[in-house]
């Protein structure tokens, strides 16, 4: 499958520090991170896909004594994450690079997070990305993800002064796709979120807490 990331990483490179200003409250991410912390032994390895600036997820996981590895497509986000979470290890990479036999082998993990990372992909790639996550997380390991609830595919939107392309699902379809790739959804929550910027519309955020089947 030919991957098209045109403009995606560049947009987030340009947004940089303004991302956390536009999205200052991340209650869903914080709650899911606390679920992981309560569920995992100290020292467990956790992969944060689409780690962004490292705040709040990677930072909170590291503070709790977990070994954090982060991946992001944007160089600027990786640089910010390294500064915000000095005990973490961060890589500039595409999720497709992490597939079995791909160019970036980070090993296996006790848990994986993907907060709004998959919405940056066209729908055709999302099941492939979920299968990659299934490969990365150990049997019975944990997976926390979030998406914006929307029936769109690779749809261009204004985003903090730039343009990005996003995809989404209605919640029942999202659950079906996640379960079809080998995960059990153990809990679902949702939040209505209004970003602190005029060009990003209010949205419904869906958070799934999952466990990999053996």
Mean pLDDT equals 90
Secondary-structure element pattern, one letter each: HHHEHEHEEHEEEHEE
User: Strand order within the widest sheet?
Assistant: 3-2-1-4-5-9-8
The 3D shape can be described as globular
Number of strands: 9
**CA gyration radius, whole angstroms:** 16 Å
Largest sheet: 7 strands, mixed
Helix proportion range? 25-40%
How much beta, percentage-wise? 25-35%
The separation of the N and C termini measures 28 Å
Structural class: alpha/beta
- Helix count equals 7
Question: Which regions have little confidence, pLDDT < 50, spanning 5+ residues?
Answer: none
Descriptive labels:
two-stranded antiparallel sheet, alpha/beta, single chain, 214 residues
Question: How is this structure best described in words?
Answer:
By secondary structure, the protein is an alpha/beta fold. 30% of the residues lie in helices and 33% in strands. It has seven helices and nine strands; from the N terminus they run H-H-H-E-H-E-H-E-E-H-E-E-E-H-E-E. It has a seven-stranded mixed beta sheet with strand order 3-2-1-4-5-9-8, sandwiched between helices. The protein has a two-stranded antiparallel ribbon with strand order 6-7. Helix 6 links the parallel strand 4 and strand 5. The mean pLDDT is 90.
Task: Summarize the SSE layout with pairings.
Layout (H helix, E strand, L loop, with lengths): L7 H8 L2 H5 L4 H13 L5 E5 L7 H7 L3 E6 L2 H10 L4 E4 L16 E7 L10 H11 E12 L3 E8 L2 E7 L2 H10 L2 E11 L9 E10 L2
Parallel strand pairs: 1-2, 1-4, 2-3, 4-5
Antiparallel strand pairs: 5-9, 6-7, 8-9
């Amino acid at each position: 499958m030919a991957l098209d990331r045109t403009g995606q990483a560049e947009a987030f490179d340009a947004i940089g520090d303004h991302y956390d200003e536009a999205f200052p409250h991340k209650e869903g991410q914080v709650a899911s991170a606390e679920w992981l912390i309560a569920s995992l032994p100290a020292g467990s390895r956790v992969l944060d896909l689409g780690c962004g600036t490292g705040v709040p997820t990677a930072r909170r996981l590291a503070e709790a004594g977990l070994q954090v590895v982060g991946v992001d497509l944007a160089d600027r986000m990786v640089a910010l994450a390294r500064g915000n979470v000095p005990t973490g290890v961060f890589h500039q990479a595409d999720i497709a690079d992490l597939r079995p036999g791909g160019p970036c082998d980070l090993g296996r993990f006790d848990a994986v997070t993907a907060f709004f990372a998959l919405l940056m992909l066209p729908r055709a790639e999302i099941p492939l990305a979920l299968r990659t996550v299934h490969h990365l997380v150990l049997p019975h390991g944990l997976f926390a993800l979030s998406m914006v609830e929307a029936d769109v595919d690779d749809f261009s939107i204004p985003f903090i002064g730039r343009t990005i392309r996003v995809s989404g699902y209605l919640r029942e379809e999202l659950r079906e796709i996640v379960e079809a790739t080998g995960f059990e959804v153990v809990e679902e929550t949702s939040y209505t979120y209004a970003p602190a910027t005029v060009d990003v519309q209010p949205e419904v955020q869906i958070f799934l807490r999952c466990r990999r089947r053996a």
